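>> Question from a student workshop board

For tomorrow's exercise we were told to take the sequence and the ligand below, predict the bound structure, and bring the output to class. My setup keeps failing. Could a helper post the expected result so I can at least see what it should look like? The ligand is EPU.
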Amino acid sequence: MPSVPTTLNVQQRASLREHNSFGLPAQARTLVRIGSEAELRRVVDHPEYGVAPKLVLGGGSNLVLTRDVDAVVLKIEIRGRRLLREDPEAWIVEAGAGENWHELVAWTLEQGWPGLENLALIPGSVGATPVQNIGAYGVELKDRFESLDAIDLVTGRTVQLDAAACRFGYRDSVFKQHLAGKSVITRVRLRLPKPWQPVLGYLDLERRMAETGVTQPDARTVFDWICAIRRAKLPDPKRIGNAGSFFKNPVVTPEQCRDIIGRDPEIVHYPMPDGSIKLAAGWLIDACGWKGKSIGRAGVYERQALVLVNRGGASGAEVVTLARAIQESVYGRFGIRLEPEPIIV
Ligand code: EPU
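>> Workshop helper replied:
Here is what the output should look like for this input. Compare the format with yours to find the bug.
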């Protein structure tokens, strides 16, 4: 039997400005705050919301809102974190989708369970991390992933997905593909392997080691380094609205790369295990002269050209106009199409 709507935490005509890290203005016709799996099932059973299209909001840190939202917006606030089990190989930690990701990283380190330190300070909620398989400084979520629970928005059933079922790719998963809008992540379980090994093969971290003379840092030190590196080049979304990297780093064939190197020898590129070459999108945008530039109130961050920012009062349309202009100039000069990383609504 459908439950009584008043038992759900529903807001009509709710501002979404506080719910997206870009700080873009948009209104949700209906915003439902979800504090538990049971509440989510109530939405599925609801005579009106059950059949309506849905937009799932985690921390809103990977989203560009260009208009008001007619779909029922589900703000996932499921809390809780615990050590699920420990075995000789790993600690298995479980967290509710509504927990803040960075606080979870800091908490696991305080408990003496290292492994997430390279993923410190990534904005957003725990439930959003598998959607785009977050990654930074040589570690991706998939490297520390055990499984997750998701609720099917049609049947209300909970399913458990392992890494293979999530189909993780570079900033990609099944939740950006055929499960988009169909299923809501409610809990995530992480596998933190023993013994712990630092992941240090990244230029910025090698620089820190050289500067400090610390060649065998503990997890806390790596955490502190990552926080310092990120603070130096990425804007804090609490102060300057942004959604992290705005474009994915494009992957090209060795032939394409050779052609570009012929014209621009200093292009930053990384060979991939499958023989393809990943190019630094930030470098491509920078090379086209965009760093620090603006269109209207949307701008390109001064210290990292891959990050678009809200200079104050920008609309989603301005952000998209800027993004298109960048795509056109990068295509014009390099023949490469940049693909946005955030979801554009
Ligand atoms: N570069 C420039 N100019 C710029 C920006 C970058 O020349 O304005 C050059 C840098 O000098 C460097 C290279 O491009 O040689 C790569 O830059 P960086 O190390 O800052 O990393 P990125 O490739 O721009 C990626 C992720 C980040 C992640 C960092 C660290 C993507 C789309 N972005 O950025 O992830 O934190 O590596 O691992 O893969 C995010 O996804 O939101 C995000 C911030």
